[in-house]
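User: Earlier you gave me the apo prediction for this protein. Now I'd like the version with adenosine-5'-diphosphate bound, so I can compare the two side by side. Same sequence as before, with the ligand SMILES added.
Assistant: Got it. Here's the input I'm using:
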Amino acid sequence: MQQSMTEFKNMTEQAVPKMSARDIHVRYGDNHAVKGISLDLHLNEITSLIGPSGCGKSTFLRCLNRMNDSVAGCKVTGQILLDNKNIYDQNIDVVQLRARVGMVFQKPNPFPKSIYDNVAYGPRIHGLAHNRTDLDEIVETSLERAGLWQEVKDRMDSPGTALSGGQQQRLCIARAIAVNPEVILMDEPCSALDPIATAKVETLMDELKSEYAIVIVTHSMQQAARISQKTAFFHLGELVEQGDTTQIFTAPRNEKTRDYITGRFG
Ligand SMILES: Nc1ncnc2c1ncn2[C@@H]1O[C@H](COP(=O)(O)OP(=O)(O)O)[C@@H](O)[C@H]1O
Ligand SMILES: [Mg+2]
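And here is the structure of the complex with adenosine-5'-diphosphate:
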């Protein structure tokens, strides 16, 4: 009975999207950068956004935690639901939203603080720890989950910026997961990393998907094929085709998708 309840819960969670974008348009002044995109994101899945440079992938990704709010001249219309609530509603606390929908950027951007403080920062401002022991535990667990603990546990007071690029990116992932997000957005998180660091981050993403919904923008089709369950192909601001990654890469339905994945443009 216990087992079947869990299975039922998992099935239900699978079926209900964690996030749903509905008819999203983004304009920067006259530049209509994102044109009517609808996309569902599920827990336990990695969704890749692929497509030629300038097609609106980053712009769309930033809509998912309202990072475009602070971009001058940027106007977003449409609906984005997180657990069925529109994140663009007036009463939404954006700081809270960004804890639930965390972000990792292309260039690792640790704060100019110690390794410890980089990870402790979010839990501190969100009041997630009652005392230092709690906070220590959150920091350790987050670094563990980001696959970095063993490498840094003896130098928690050194600056985050002194780590290697790949370690810095894992530190940024630890910082994002320290506030218990539900969704993690990653904008080309490996493009500044060497192949070994890239492989580590990919392995980590694969592990993290057991707890989160993950969206990754990548210009590497090999990476999308390796790590994601769902793929969405963007072109000139439109979402041309989305589906299971295997289908997109082996049997694309749209001619533009086929041209892109066979390297005919982009
Ligand atoms: N901060 C910004 N201000 C003005 N225009 C922008 C900004 N960011 C992106 N754009 C424009 O929006 C379009 C989509 O860009 P972007 O989302 O960065 O594409 P991608 O991530 O697919 O390369 C481009 O025409 C780009 O010039
Ligand atoms: Mg981009």
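For your comparison, keep in mind: DSSP finds eleven helices and ten strands in the chain.
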